[in-house]
């Protein structure tokens, strides 16, 4: 690369991750915590801040990590769930009811759920068809005992998918809103 950059942000869209309260983290032992949830052989373990009380432990392929570290100027690695959570947390002071942010990608669905007490859930689900998205959203909605009249669902997806979701979820959830995420959300600062 011939251009000079102050820093390059590398946002992982894949890889295993888990959110761990700060009280349970021992520096240098993060791999054990993540390995407890899913195997991490051949992967580099990274840690992102996740609010004031937790860390997001995630992985990146070891070869990709080494290549980027060696080839890029001051790379900053993060996971997209960290960026999405930070974006959603900005709206916490205005949260008076339950709120789910659903971020739909081609092969995955990220759900970040909040209420006035704070973060309730952050998870990613595999998606192979549109009905998978309906299932996960409605299942999480039910498990969190969200209210169909007062709690809110914010959807970030391509227009066609968003319209399809609105049409199919409006019989179950009254307050469904689109959300646009500015690109600077992914310019993580550490």
From TrEMBL:
Organism: gut metagenome
CDD domains for the chain: ASKHA_ATPase_BT3980-like (cd24013)
InterPro entries documented for this protein: DUF3822
Alphabetical list of Pfam families matching this protein: DUF3822
Protein name: Uncharacterized protein
